[in-house]
Write a structure and sequence with these properties.
The chain is an all-alpha fold. It has two domains: about 1-30; about 45-170, no CATH class. The chain is about 65% helix and about 0% strand. Helix 3 packs across helix 8 and helix 6 packs antiparallel against helix 8. The longest helix has 28 residues, at about 1-30. The N and C termini lie far apart (about 80 Å). The structure holds heme C. Heme C binds near residues 68, 91, 119, 123 and 133. Heme C binds near residues 69, 98, 119 and 128.
Length: about 170
């Protein structure tokens, strides 16, 4: 009986140490602040202004894609808390690196076509928006209708951009 009590006490002490350790690490992590790149939005190069979509599609794009693929990221409150900050910044950085809709107008025409096509594909295959994002942002989850509208618009826009391009240079 005594041994059991000792064990429980020892166990409690270890748990307490672990808890304190986690708390210390958590606090220490808060001193690491990633640099945020909140670049001023240059509106005239924004996809939404370069190829104005119908209002419904525009809303879907901004709601479900722009946090990661534009300079207009709306950071949630927990974005200032580590380790979430790292996780979020990584997604935003990587998302913008692949596609930045705020700079769409500055893309070479061939790349613009590729981007529109890739978007249609990713959305149709339900790869985008990232599932971890929709977990925290249920409003960004696409309904079947929103998905279909977005894909249809991306496909048409890609087709039009491709035709315009084929007039200036032949595409395979
Ligand atoms: C939570 C952030 C996040 C959101 C929201 C998001 N994306 Fe992404 N997206 C990423 C990241 C990170 C990558 C690169 C890694 C990957 O492909 O998983 C990516 C990759 C892509 C790619 C592939 C690019 C390439 O070079 O092949 C496309 C296309 C894309 N996203 C379109 C979209 C569209 C359209 C939406 C909105 C419906 C969207 N994304 C929403 C983070 C995001």
């Amino acid at each position: 009986m005594l041994a059991l009590k000792m064990n429980a006490e020892a166990c409690f002490r270890v748990l307490k140490k672990i808890a304190v350790g986690i708390a210390v690490v958590f606090v220490a992590l808060q001193f690491f602040r990633p640099e945020r790149s909140l670049v001023a939005a240059s509106d005239e190069e924004d996809l939404i202004n370069v190829l104005p979509p119908p209002p419904g599609v525009r809303e879907t794009l901004v709601n479900s894609c722009y946090d990661c693929h534009s300079n207009q990221t709306r950071y949630p409150w927990y974005a200032s808390i580590q380790p979430f900050a790292w996780f979020l910044d990584h997604h935003v950085e990587e998302g913008r690196m692949h596609i930045n809709f705020s700079e769409f107008g500055g893309l070479p025409p061939r790349r613009a076509v590729q981007v529109l096509e890739a978007c249609g594909d990713e959305v149709a295959e339900k790869e985008m928006p990232l599932w971890s994002y929709t977990l925290a942002h249920p409003a960004a989850r696409l309904t079947e209708a929103q998905r279909a509208d977005l894909v249809a618009w991306m496909t048409t826009a890609a087709e039009e951009a491709r035709q315009k391009l084929s007039k200036t240079e032949p595409i395979r």
